[in-house]
Structure formats: C-alpha cells, structure tokens
Amino acid sequence: MSVSTQGSVDIAATGAADRVFNFSAGPAVLPVQVLEEVQREMVCLPGAGASLMELSHRGKVFVDIVESAVEDIRSLLRVPETHEVLFVQGGATLQFSMIPANLLRSQDAAAAYLITGSWGKKALTEARKEGEVDVVYDASSTNFNHAPGAGDFEVKEDAAYAYYCCNETIQGVQFQSEPQVPSDVPLVCDASSDLFSRPLDISKYGLIYACAQKNAGPAGATVVIIRKDLIDRGSDSLPGYLLYKNHANAGSMWNTPATFPIYVMGKVLKWIQSNFGDLESMRDHNEAKAKLLYDVLDANPDFYVGHADENARSRMNVTFNLPSDDQLQAFIGSAADAGLANLKGHRSVGGVRASVYNAMPIEGVEKLAQFMTDFASR
Amino acid sequence: MSVSTQGSVDIAATGAADRVFNFSAGPAVLPVQVLEEVQREMVCLPGAGASLMELSHRGKVFVDIVESAVEDIRSLLRVPETHEVLFVQGGATLQFSMIPANLLRSQDAAAAYLITGSWGKKALTEARKEGEVDVVYDASSTNFNHAPGAGDFEVKEDAAYAYYCCNETIQGVQFQSEPQVPSDVPLVCDASSDLFSRPLDISKYGLIYACAQKNAGPAGATVVIIRKDLIDRGSDSLPGYLLYKNHANAGSMWNTPATFPIYVMGKVLKWIQSNFGDLESMRDHNEAKAKLLYDVLDANPDFYVGHADENARSRMNVTFNLPSDDQLQAFIGSAADAGLANLKGHRSVGGVRASVYNAMPIEGVEKLAQFMTDFASR
C-alpha cells in the first residue's frame, strides 16, 4: 500500500497493514486512528503553520490542547470540583518520591503502604527516605499473587495517607475495588496501568495518578489527580519541580511540559469518548477481552498456570506460565510468528504476560485466545 | 496538495507547503525532513510492527535508538571518555534542583553562581534550597544585557562548583567562551538553548545540560553530560529520580524514559550530521544567520534597539525593541501576516525576539531581515 504524495512523503509505505498485535506492557498499543491523526498533523498542525512539537507551550494552540485534555479527564472520570488535574514529567517513579515529599515529610504521622507487587515495593523504598512508613499489608510471601480483602489489614486513624497500587502490571494483580481506610486518611493510588480503563469514584482518593504509557498515550506525561486541600501540604523547601503547588498554581505550566505526549493523550481521551462513550462501556470492553484469555487458562488448568489468584486477576495484564521453559520459549516464538508480539513476561516473574489495555482491539485478543487453545492442544 | 492514500490517511492535507517560518523560543522549529521521516514512521516503524510510541523502552528497537543517540551526541560534541551522557525528564527546571541536590548538598563548600539572565536566576532559587551559594556575578543592574569578562568575577578555589547559563534565551545574551574558574572547580552549564549549535570543549565541564526543545528535539527529553567522578557525589537519601547515579547505572533506563522525544532527538542529531557534518559548520551557519539580523539592527540604530551588548549578542535569540509600543505591535502583526511567526519577546523583556536555532532555514532569516529593513524604512 505504498503511495507517494506530491510532497514526496511516501507515507503509507509502512502503515496500518504492517502492524502486529502488540501485547507490550508499556509503552503499549495505541489506537491506530489516533496514530493516523497524529501522522496527518505531524508536519503541520492545521491552522498552526507548524508541527505541534514546534509550538510554544504558552501559545493558544497548546493551551487549548491542555485545557481540553483536562476537561476530558474530568468528564471521563467524573472528577469532582474538589480535585485538581495536573500533568507532570518523570513518570510514576517521580511520583514515588513526590507523594511522600509533599504529603509525608511535613507530617508527624506515618504513611500506611499496602504492597501487592513490584511497583508498590519501589514506591515504598522512596517513601522511607521521606518519613515514617507502616507496611500494613505485604503480599510478598506468596510471590505477589493476590490483593488483600477487607479484614486483611488495618490503617491507623491518624495515618498521613494510605498508599496502594491498584494494578500491579508485572504480577497481573488488580484490586477489584478500593481498599477500606479510615475516612480522614487520604487514599493515594498508583493507577498507572488501569486509569481510564474503568470507572472510579475519584472522590474517594486524596491523590491518584498514572503515567500515560499504558491506557492513555506515550511515555513522558503523567496525570496526577489531587484533592485541593492536599496541594499545599508540601514545604517550600522542596525542590521546586517536586512541589505539587507549583504545578497546580501554574496550570501544569510551571515549566515546559512534555507537549507532544500530552497532545497524543488528548487524542486518546477523545478516542475513548467517541468509541466507547464512557468508562463503564470501556470497562465492559476490557472485561470481555480479559475473559477471553482467562477462559482459556481455566479450560486448560494442566497446561496454563495463571499467576494471580482468581479474585485478583487483572483485566489489563494477564500473566501465566507453561509447564516447561522449552514450551514457554516455543509459545512466545510461535506467537510472534503469528503476529502476536511482545508476550514475554517481566524478568522478575517470567512466563507470559499479555497486556490488553484499552487500545488492544478485541480481534487481537480473540486471535491470541485461539492461538493459546491451539498451542495447548498440540 | 491533498492526496488520499489507500489507507484513507489524507496525509498531505497539511504539509510542508502550509508551514510558516517559526521563530518561537522553544519548543521551536524542527527540520522538516525530520518531521517527514517521523510522519512516515508514525503508524508503523519499519520492521517493528508498531509505532515507536508503542514499543517497550527495554526492547531492542528502542535500546538501539538510545545508544545511537548517545553515540551521535558523543561524536558531534567530541565527548571524552571521562564523561557520561544521560537522558532525563523534567526539563532544565528539574536540573536546577538535581545539580545542587547531587553536587552541593553533601559538600562543605559553597557553590558559585553567575547570573546573567532569567534562567540563571531560577537556577539560583533552587540551589539556595540545597546549600550555600555565592553569587559571584550578577548582571541584573543593567537588566541582564551582558556577560562578564575575565576579570569581572572570582570563584573560590574550594567552590563546590561554578554555575552559569551560556545562552540566556529571554535576554538574548550569550557567553562567547567559557568563564574562567579555578581548575579544581567543576564548571556547570545550562546550555539548554545552544547545545549542538556550536562546538564546545566538553572536557572543561563538570556537567553541562540542555533541554531538547531548542536545537535538538521536542520537549520532554533533557540531555545531561556529566563527568564520571561527579556522578557519585549524590547521597542515596535523595529522591531516587534525582540521583544522577541511578540514571547513569541504568543507561538512562532507570525508569521509562520519554521514548518519543528521544527518538525525535536522534533524528535531529542525524540531520545535523548529514546536513552540516560537524558543529564547526553548524556554528558557521548559525553565525551567518544571526549576522543577517544584527546587521539590520546596526544599519538602523535609530529604529531598532538591540537588548544585548554587542559582545554578548546571542546567535540563537536576537532580541530588540522598536521606538514605540504601537510600532512593536504593528511589526509583530505584519510579520505574522508575512509568514514570520512567533516573534513576540518574552513578557519579562518585551520587544521582539527572533529565535534562529539550528533548524531555522537561512531563507526564513533572509525573509525576516528583508522585512525588518522594509519596516524600518516605512
């Protein structure tokens, strides 16, 4: 499908037809419609006379893009007026430090951490540098294969905040609902790999955040939704970039933001709205996709061994192993030959990981499910 | 020049022909050849089966891109083996804090700061949070219109480091050569708006850095070149993302980097190499462009008033004012009508600012110079 244009841009030389189904855990699959839109606008954004990448972040074109992205986030997640929406650089990793630097360092109390996987552990390491931390739940003894139930942990009434990661990408373990914490304790959540994949009651959170590169866009932009009364907890002695209030007071323009990742994220949000309408419908779609894969695991219990307990199964990252390493290698190799790419599990867990974020089409999941069934029967 | 392809991507609807000459100070003009290459690869990077934005940062495709970008930076700037090249998020602003957090907090000595404009001032504010600072030069009394000469300041023998910004984008003031500091004092430089625009002797620097969005790519990627013996100065008690050694030990993959901005930066570096060969030739090109504009200022001294002293004139940002605000508004408006865009000076200085970074074609500068001459004679 190679077509040359007058501008000598042989744009379709490698296009949609050359794409594989990409199960990468992140950076991850994006909607092809979004990529095509970005492609059309790459050399010159209509009306702007330049590529988006070349425009000042303080110009009207980009300011409109940011404001529209914030509005769409507010609308999709029904963010209440009590909360602010920010864009920050540095990924989830910088949030691991910004959260305790702002919300713990200045407090007399300890923060409560629930550890259900690798990302929670990393967050914990950074929090301990900033203040006192109580680990109120730790699933490491069972190799992080489950999430706690209601009575499995306790958060003190005076905790500075309670922290958890609602979907552990590496282990494929997802909380089915928010953990219960005392009403005065701000709930803080790393939703990097499932924000925008399902509806959430944002009013329950003091702070919830996500790096973009799972369900919402390319790496480089991180969304932070923070309750307004928590914004000022950070001390002015912190490095300026780490202070939430600097970002909030400047409408996420305290310094030059990662303009292009935010622009792409804006298009992904519009894609969710126009293709699914709301996050209830997005969730139903994602649950249907994940079910296709878990059904194959359940139908072949002697061949596929799922990592996560049944009631903690992630709808985003389906993790499982095969009886032998030879079979695992054969599985990943044959799948790649069949256009089912990037299925290798994280090195710390091994096995297979199929990430089926928002933008993974159901056709890709159906093809993988069929491949898994065929492979198990061979 | 609208051409539809089979894939229904009406790619050339807004293409090179619709572009204006964009004098934005940053994010800023990029080479159109780079934009067209990115455009071609947007939906599917050849051989990868996906867009670059969708690929894991730990996969071979992206690792090759990072390694190649580092190699090209090393080659263009002739970075010696004593120095490491890192990519970090957070822009120059995060460097304002990372530098003193790593290089000052653990030291008994003060850091020396030379302040020649707005960016140096911002860096100073952050440094003061981390330790003792001596301001050894401050050009604020003349509204930051010049850079110091050799005898104009003194840096103590035991300073933790000496810091300066070699090109103040807002004021259009550029150091013509490195400031002289005692040989044991690491020289630290914010080269955000002129790295890659001219050759530099990197061996003179303890640390030199630049955000990408002036001469090297889109916002979101920051290049840090640091002498290896300085990498370990930072204490492990720092927030992990702020520790240079974490980024260095992980080859800039301590966490997910801003993959797309780095990929575009890689293409810009290749563009410099294939169009100019080396930074001596790039400098000559940039000096020729800036001269076109300064010649118009010098030919019309009663009409155009340059902001910078003649021996501190920036080859990147040409700043000047007009006799009246009415004339200034007319100038900016008529220029925009003529396809010469984003010439408004920064709000803190006013007037006109023409940023003529690497990717600004000489045709754009010639057109602006002609416009300026015509406007002055009207």
Explained architecture:
The structure is a homodimer of 378-residue chains. The longest helix of chain A is centred in the last third of the chain and has 21 residues. The relative contact order of chain A is 0.16. The two termini of chain A are 36 Å apart. Chain A is an alpha/beta fold and 378 residues long. Chain A is globular, with a radius of gyration of 21 Å. In chain A, helix 2 crosses helix 7. Chains A and B meet through helix 1, helix 3, helix 4 and helix 7 of A and helix 1, helix 3, helix 4 and helix 7 of B.
Spatial separation of the terminal alpha carbons of chain A: 36 Å
DSSP strand (E) fraction of chain A? 5-15%
Largest two-chain interface? A-B, 84 and 85 residues
Which parts of chain A are unreliable, with pLDDT below 50 for 5 consecutive residues or more?
1-10
Shape of chain A: globular
**What share of residues of chain A is helical?**
25-40%
What oligomerization state is this entry in?
A: homodimer
What summary fits the major beta sheet of chain A? 7 strands, mixed
Structural class of chain A: alpha/beta
Number of strands of chain A: 14
Order of helices and strands of chain A: EHHEHEHEEEEEEEHHHHEEHEEH
Radius of gyration of chain A: 21 Å
Mean pLDDT of chain A: 95
Strand order of the largest sheet of chain A: 2-10-9-8-5-3-4
The count of helical stretches of chain A stands at 10
For the structure shown, list the relevant keywords.
alpha/beta; 7-stranded mixed beta sheet; homodimer; 378 residues; disordered N terminus; 3-stranded antiparallel beta sheet
